[in-house]
User: Which sequence fits this backbone?
């Protein structure tokens, strides 16, 4: 009996899952989805946290201050804190590796996905609306619109 399916279409495999996290409750459902999918597909999870160095700009600091030693110390402190917060996540997900990067989360997530040749991005949404959405935008929305690989988004349950 001949094989079923289209022989010219590439086989879809999920070997690496990128799971960005900001350590918020909104990220939890996505981490659970990533873990379950990794289990089903015997895939590796890459837990990513991006230290947003643009916060200095939001605080009203001039762009050239980003090179100042005090700002660098703040970024390194935030990076160290993120690395500490990654440890319990890595313990919860034994097939996971952790990665902390600096930059704008939107672009860093896409860059890491490309660099590490991941097959799927699983991330949470925060459901921002109104001014917050206009001002900060949606990282998940940006990633969905610009990713060349599938993106699964998971929203935190609303308790009201």
Assistant:
């Amino acid at each position: 009996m001949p094989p079923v399916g289209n022989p010219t279409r590439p086989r879809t495999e999920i070997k690496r899952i990128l799971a960005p996290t900001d350590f918020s409750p909104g990220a939890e459902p996505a981490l659970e989805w990533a873990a379950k999918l990794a289990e089903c597909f015997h895939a590796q999870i890459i837990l990513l946290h991006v230290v947003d160095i643009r916060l200095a700009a939001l605080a009203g600091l001039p762009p050239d201050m980003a090179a100042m030693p005090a700002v660098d110390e703040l970024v390194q402190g935030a990076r160290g804190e993120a690395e500490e917060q990654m440890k319990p996540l890595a313990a919860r997900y034994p097939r996971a590796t952790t990665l902390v990067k600096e930059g704008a989360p939107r672009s860093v997530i896409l860059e890491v996905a490309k660099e590490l040749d991941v097959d799927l991005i699983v991330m949470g949404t925060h459901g921002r609306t109104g001014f917050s959405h206009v001002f900060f935008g949606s990282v998940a929305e940006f990633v969905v619109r610009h990713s060349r690989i599938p993106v699964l988004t998971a929203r935190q349950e609303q308790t009201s």
User: Anything to note?
Assistant: The domain at 16-153 is CATH 3.40.50.620 (Rossmann fold). The beta strands are 16-20, 44-51, 96-102, 120-125, 151-155. Residues 1-6, 129-136 have pLDDT under 50 and may be disordered. Residues 69-92 form the longest helix (24 residues).
